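task queued by scheduler; priority normal; single chain, no ligands, no partner chains; default sampling; output format set to structure tokens
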Amino acid sequence: MSTATEPRTAGAAGRTAGTSRRGGLLWLVWRQNRGVALGLLALLLAGGIGMVVQGASMTAYLAQHDIAGCALFSPSPRCEGLQRAVEDFRAGYGKTFRLGQLLLVLLPALIGLFVGAPLLARELESGTHKVALTQSVGPLRWLTAKLALPAVLTAVTAAGLAAGYLWMWRSGGQETLGAYWYSDSGFMALGPVPVAQSLLMLATGTLVGLLLRRTIVAMVLTLGVSAALTLVFMNARQYLLPSVTTDFPHGGRVPDDSWVLWEGSLTTSGEHLPRGTCSAGPGVEKCLLSHHVDGGSYIVQHPAAHHWPLAWIEAGIALALAAVVTAVIYRVVRRQFG
């Protein structure tokens, strides 16, 4: 009787062991990333709730004092005499608003530093990856499990915080807050940009950790790479879409929500005087007269309508780079571990 039941018992044990191995990898990844997951969840809840509450409070203040759309110096007759209310609004809500903005600006670097860089480096440095790879778990499956959870957590956290910030930014208004979309920090905190940048830095930090196999060194280098990528995006942003040139033969100005790239002088014949032709100094008036400039000007700008196209283009570039970096990670793991 015992002989008859032994095969069935052995088979059940094998199935249980197989299930345990399949579930064991996911459980192991969860346990290794549990602190990060809880930290990101806490950040999402605290930051998101704070932004929603702040946005609702700003909306109520604007309605109570009727200053929506009013800046400190506004040409609108409706805003006349309301500068004090605008000042009080900025004093009361500006610091908290910029704290939320700073959080999203720093989020990609924080993700790369504390999530990406240690993700593989810690295991490779300690040698604990060998345990997983010797339990009938292929290296690519191990890598996929290691990357999937942090990637989902990063995307959800960044998207939630970005949505909260967008609500807060729209509630306060660009003019009244003095926080325009084209500022470096404002652009980096709005829409899809912080989400894509966070995923890029997650992949970049993971690759750095994989190559260096030293957690602290990988974190330091990831921070440097994050700063370098931020500078590259900041300097390349204005070229992602063709700019718009507007002539003002008799004076004028573009709206405050337009991103002015540069201004130049307009000659009487309607030609654009190249930048730098008449440098500021004692002879500037004589120089302008010699080029037949009589007060006209032109402005090269990105209007407010360019905001979201620019944001999606930059986010698309960041996501494409993240995909390339992830492909390199898989290639390196395949080469190193077979």
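post-processing summary
- The first helix runs from residue 2 to 65.
- The longest strand covers residues 293-302.
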